[in-house]
Design a protein that fits this description.
By secondary structure, the protein is mainly α. The chain has a single domain, classed as Ferritin (Up-down Bundle). It has 6 helices and no strands. The longest helix is centred in the C-terminal third of the chain and has 30 residues. The two termini are 25 Å apart.
């Protein structure tokens, strides 16, 4: 209920608009950040600087950890069975990719080297999780799945346009190529769930 005296309650419409604004800002900023990854290492002629295999390894580890963490939050906070199924898939699939990537870089003797992109991804993830932890019900579900759609769209672009072309080691490049179909399936699944909860 909305009150004009000292009572701090807000109207449901004001609360919905505030939640929409927070969700929209997080989704747009995540999408913009990840889309911008393909240009994050550009020089003045807009030719992308090649990432090292150690940088790529750090990005892969960081990106998978982000989706695992968000999935775990969704499993704890959502009551929607479709969101929970999707989150379970994200935790399982991204844990498998993470384990595979760690095994590969260990075998190759590559130590992941963080860069500005990894730090920015970590900050963005922390900010998104902080927003998720303030939400519940349909507002939570919508924020989580909208973010997952934007995140997977952007990650697929970064993998295809930046990481695969930059990978020097054939096994690392092959691993990156091999995960694209799974990430495309994640995107399709997230779009389906997004339509269901609109």
């Amino acid at each position: 209920m909305y009150s004009s005296n000292n009572n701090k309650q807000t109207s449901p419409m004001i609360e919905i608009l505030a939640q929409f604004r927070r969700n929209f800002i997080v989704s747009v900023s995540t999408f913009a950040l990840l889309v911008g990854c393909t240009n994050a290492y550009s020089n003045k002629t807009q030719q992308p600087e090649t990432l090292t295999d150690a940088n790529i390894a750090a990005i892969v580890v960081g990106a998978n950890n982000i989706d695992i963490s968000a999935g775990k939050i969704a499993l704890q906070r959502s009551q929607n069975s479709e969101i929970k199924k999707f989150a379970e898939r994200m935790v399982a699939d991204h844990t498998a990719v993470l384990n595979s990537a760690v095994a590969l870089v260990t075998k190759l003797g590559v130590t992941p080297v963080n860069n500005d992109l990894v730090a920015t991804l970590a900050k963005q993830s922390s900010d998104h999780e902080a927003v998720l932890l303030t939400l519940s019900g349909k507002a939570f579900d919508k924020s989580y799945i909208d973010h997952e759609v934007a995140y997977h769209e952007a990650v697929i672009g970064v993998i295809e346009n930046q990481l695969i072309p930059s990978a020097q080691n054939k096994e690392l490049k092959d691993m990156l190529i091999s995960v694209v179909p799974a990430f495309n399936a994640h995107l399709e699944h997230s779009l389906m769930v997004q339509k269901q909860i609109q």
